[in-house]
Design goal:
Oligomer: heterodimer
Number of strands of chain A: 14
Strand order of the largest sheet of chain A: 6-7-8-3-9-10
Largest sheet of chain B: none
Number of helices of chain A: 10
Strand content of chain B: under 5%
Largest interface: A-B, 41 and 34 residues
Distance between the termini of chain B: 34 Å
Order of helices and strands of chain A: EEEHEEHEHHHEHEHEEEHEEHEH
Shape of chain A: elongated
């Protein structure tokens, strides 16, 4: 793909326009394959990049930023080929890393203004823009104190401000709710939602929490062990049925599964436990009775919190 | 985003305003929300300039506590002392008696220069890696080469200031103290390019080598200790080796006296080998010292760039 005209900022991406196009992306670290032939398209709006730790989310984002070089495959961001015109593309990308990346001894106002200038804004505009952005993320008077004394929630908001200060067309957020308490998490998700909905800034948000994706995303990409497991609009994921996890000991699990299946339940054995589809609440009673009838020890019975593993269990 | 939407404050102000604020100016709070930026963008040029100036500020401790300013400004003052003494002697008893001249000045302040870059180079590289700011830097419109270039330029600028400020003071003072001001300038015009050349050589050598060592140290203190050790130990080792053996081999091994090499090579610009010390003891051509200095600088720069093409961000 050829680069768009010199120095012209790409237009705000429309909801159905591809912002990121990835084809056959592979990255290995020694014997570990972080990404395995991943091909996908991300359009405008907010896209969740869902996957367990080590699924390849951060690697994908770093490749899009040009921080990591892929072994094979190609990536296009905002119409720019990352390998050839990475610098051009990065003028219009905001990145919020997963890890801590803020200096302790300077104030948020100073650091965000510094980052704005690194994105090409002249000093005066950088300071104004830094103050506006910090106010937007909810840091007012605190912004003049050194970052070293900030709480995790405040630091995450400073990182978000750093990503947003140069008014990028695309935001790449890596685990933005990491380490936040429930209230802080709500605020961060609300901030992401407002930013994505309001100005039409395209957002790719990597997370391991399905709940975060459900709260704010329009589209979802699911990575599992470096492979693209699923991709599509969020609505296609809502059909996932909740599951009950029954633990009776690995040796007896198949026996219980067979008995429950005989009663017409939707059952499978996964990791030494029996997973039963929670179609109605009477399932609890039927499981209890079956376990009693087989004279098995009931070690654990509970609903599986909706995490990625369940989607895969559903897929299997 | 509901741009221009009036916030809660405005609603309240409106309610009260009905009766009370007919004369008073009505307070209105606007929640402007997220605003797009439509101002100028200066791209990579601005990014490199920002890194250069922020680096220079960090080296001199600008915008940081007093103790961060102590070392750089104290060392600059130390570097100026011989010039002040030289001027004093020149004024009191005459120019020719001054022990501090343009051609031997770097010998007198060699340790100050070494100490300055020992402390300054780690400031420029280590905190960025330690605090993992590099991932933010390299995800902007900035290449890794740009980063190294900006940091090197910042240290070079600071080192040039330390090297040139005393010489400038000496020149200016001597001009004013000379009975024939214009005559002094005319006779010493050729000194200016020599001083500049020598300062550039010495500054570039120390900047490049100090940054190369700092690029591999996780913390400032290790970087400073490692660099100082490499410089001082190498010089002590080959100097004492030559003093003991006094063979042809030990003479050439003296070229490994890392803290002395550029200072002796700087003499090439004045066509005058430093008197006394290692240079006199081994008596090698100044051109050889100059070539070794340039080679060491090139190696250091390659090491620095190599490290930063690979450093994890």
């Amino acid at each position: 793909m050829t680069a768009p005209a010199h120095a012209r900022a790409p237009a705000v991406p429309a909801l159905d326009e591809p912002v990121i196009t990835v084809t056959g992306l592979t990255k290995r670290y020694g014997r570990v394959t972080a990404l395995d032939e991943v091909s996908c398209t991300v359009t405008g709006g907010i896209t969740g990049l869902l996957g367990a730790n080590g699924a390849g989310k951060s690697t994908l984002i770093k490749i899009l930023l040009g921080l990591v070089e892929p072994d094979s495959g190609a990536a296009t961001v905002l119409g720019y080929d990352v390998a050839r015109h990475g610098l051009r593309a990065r003028e219009h990308i905001g990145y919020m890393p997963e890890h801590d990346c803020l200096p302790a001894d300077v104030s948020a106002a100073e650091f965000v203004a510094h980052m704005a200038q690194l994105s090409g804004l002249p000093p005066r505009q950088a300071w104004t823009r830094a103050a506006d952005t910090l106010r937007y993320v909810g840091l007012d008077e605190e912004r003049y104190r050194p970052i070293g004394g900030y709480s995790t929630g405040m630091r995450q908001r400073v990182k978000f401000a750093v990503a947003l200060v140069h008014d990028p067309r695309l935001l790449l957020l890596d685990e933005p709710t990491n380490g936040l308490d429930p209230a802080g998490r709500e605020q961060m998700l609300e901030l992401i939602r407002r930013t994505g909905r309001g100005q039409g800034t395209a957002i790719l948000m990597a997370t391991h929490l399905l709940a975060d994706v459900e709260r704010v995303c329009d589209h979802v990409l699911v990575l599992d062990g470096g492979r693209l497991a699923r991709a599509g609009p969020l609505t296609s994921f809502r059909s996932v049925q909740p599951l009950l996890r029954v633990a009776v000991g690995p040796a007896d699990a198949p026996r219980l599964a067979a008995a429950l299946a005989g009663q017409g339940e939707d059952v499978r054995v996964h990791g030494g436990e029996v997973l039963v589809a929670l179609r109605d609440y009477a399932v609890y009673d039927r499981i209890r009775d079956t376990v009693a009838a087989l004279d098995l020890p009931l070690l654990r019975l509970g609903q599986v919190t909706s995490t990625l593993a369940d989607i895969f269990a559903e897929e299997a | 985003m509901e741009a221009g939407r009036t916030g809660e404050g405005a609603v309240r102000a409106d309610a009260v305003g009905e009766q009370a604020a007919s004369a008073a100016v009505e307070g209105r709070i606007f929640d402007l929300g997220y605003q797009p930026y439509r101002g100028p963008r200066e791209g990579r040029r601005r990014a490199v300039a920002t890194l250069f100036w922020s680096g220079l500020r960090r080296v001199w401790g600008v915008g940081r506590p007093f103790r961060a300013k102590l070392a750089p400004w104290g060392l600059l003052a130390l570097a100026l002392i011989p010039a002040l003494i030289g001027l004093g002697i020149a004024v009191l008893v005459g120019q020719v008696f001054s022990p501090f001249r343009y051609d031997n000045y770097y010998q007198h302040i060699a340790r100050v220069i070494l100490l300055f870059c020992t402390l300054a180079a780690p400031e420029l590289l280590c905190p960025d890696r330690q605090q993992r700011v590099l991932s933010l830097y390299f995800s902007r419109a900035l290449s890794r080469g740009d980063y190294v270039l900006a940091r090197l330029a910042a240290l070079l600028a600071a080192m040039l200031a330390v090297c040139l400020a005393p010489q400038a003071l000496l020149y200016l003072g001597s001009t004013l103290a000379a009975p024939d001001t214009l005559g002094y300038v005319r006779h010493n015009l050729d000194v200016i390019p020599r001083v500049l050349g020598a300062a550039l050589l010495v500054s570039l050598y120390f900047s490049a080598t100090a940054l190369a060592v700092a690029a591999y140290s996780p913390r400032r203190i290790y970087a400073a200790a490692a660099y100082f050790a490499v410089m001082v130990v190498s010089t002590l080792a080959v100097t004492s080796l030559h003093a003991t053996l006094d063979t042809d081999l030990s003479r050439y091994l003296s070229l490994l006296a890392l803290s002395e090499v550029p200072v002796i090579a700087a003499g090439r610009f004045f066509h005058a080998a430093p008197q006394g010390g290692l240079a006199a003891a081994v008596d090698l051509p100044l051109m050889l010292w100059l070539l070794v200095t340039l080679a060491d600088t090139a190696v250091a720069l390659l090491v620095l760039v190599y490290r930063y093409t690979r450093v994890e961000a």
